[in-house]
Amino acid sequence: MLHLKSFAFNPFSENTYVVFNDHKNAFILDPGNFSEAETAVLEKFISENQLNVQNILLTHAHIDHVLGLQWAFDTFKVPVLMHELDKEILDRNPMSARQFGFFFKPFEGEMEYLEENKTLKLDEDEFKILHVPGHSPGSIAFHSETQKFVISGDVLFEGSIGRTDLYKGNHEQLINSIKTKLFILDEETKVYNGHGNPTTVGFEKNHNPFF
After folding, report:
1. pTM of the prediction?
2. Are residues 149 and 128 in contact, defined by beta-carbon separation less than 8 angstroms?
3. Nearest CA to 31 among 4, 10, 52?
4. Minimal CA–CA distance to 68: which of 104, 96, 34?
């Protein structure tokens, strides 16, 4: 069985997730820890629960979702898994940081690329990889069909959708991604997004003003 813990980190109030199972194996998703205090909170949770981090997963590579990426890689020494189309976004983050007035060192570490409809396993539990571009070209969602939840990054929010005015964003593409990849999921599927409260597929299909 999978368990999920969320943390709201950094000045952007980004949701970082730790997903783990009864064997204490875990994934870190979108490590956005920025301050020493935030890093200490994340590190304490992993340590106290005796979790064995298997991989670091990125829904996408915008700077607010990767502020703790180098720390996570250096600490757990496991590959970072993301979609190849967001590698350019990751590489642009030092420039993005300067625009916000702080320094961000280019990421250095092992990276592997995920593809549409591939299955990612955490022991007996499986996630299907959904490519959901629009907010960024390589945005992906991690769907657990058996436990009816999806971690979607900045694609679909409670009553809203992700921004498309950022570099290589595309509004039409984002709307299509949501309609064809997320809205076809079971309506009870819980949506854990990149900012704010979780929602469900059914609620957004029926109430989201963008649809």
Report:
1. 0.97
2. no
3. 10
4. 34
CATH of 2-207, one of 3.60.15.10, 3.40.50.1220, 3.20.20.140, 3.40.50.970: 3.60.15.10
Q: What share of the chain is helix, strand, coil (3-state, %, to 5)?
A: 30, 30, 40
Q: How far apart are CA 10 and CA 178, in angstroms?
A: 26
DSSP per-residue string spanning 77-119:
---EEEEGGGHHHHHTHHHHHHHHTS--PPP-S-EEEE-TT-E
| Segment 31-68, tens digit of pLDDT | 999 999 999 999 999 999 999 999 999 999 999 999 99
Residue 172: helix, strand or coil by DSSP? helix
